[in-house]
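debug: dumping io for the single-chain case to check the tokenizer round-trip. Nothing else runs in this session.
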Amino acid sequence: KGQDVEVATPVITGETPFIGSTTVTIECETEAATIYYTIDGTEPTNQSTEYTAPFQLAENTTVKAIAYDGTNWSDVASKEITATTVLSTMDEIFEAAGATASTQYIAFNDWIVTGVSSNGKNVFVTDGTKGFVINDGSGAMGFKANDVLSGTVQVNLQKYKGYAQVTGLKASTTGLTVDEGGVPTLNVLDA
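debug: decoded output
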């Protein structure tokens, strides 16, 4: 800390957790202050990178920042910015499915609804090689057989009777695109 003037601690903002990348901004209430930051875990000084504009991050990073006003400086601000793992294959989904439900992000890659139970509470989805069940106690998910699902969404995932099961997903879920009329592509194994 400096001796004469109090310098406000910088404020670091950036979506966390994030998918893909996030924009990080750093601001300081002390108008004349110059902000310096690090993204390698080290403590920032006035020899670190000067903050001049928002920047992008695409992986787990600790951002640290300090503000200087002449010979005076602020406390160090620190923020963990965390990338979210997106499950994009059936193998990844099955690996991540545990005995208890966990929040996961799944990237649906033109996967097809191959069937809907008569009560509408179970929907079967495949990528042509493997599949999983979407379950909803209300039976009002809004999916139909042959719907093509794409987009990245947050769901609850768990293993149920040896299968991967997704809950918390409806056709109207933000981030999910549902196109009608897909044709399943199934891999047939020779006997």
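debug: round-trip ok. DSSP finds one helix and 15 strands in the chain.
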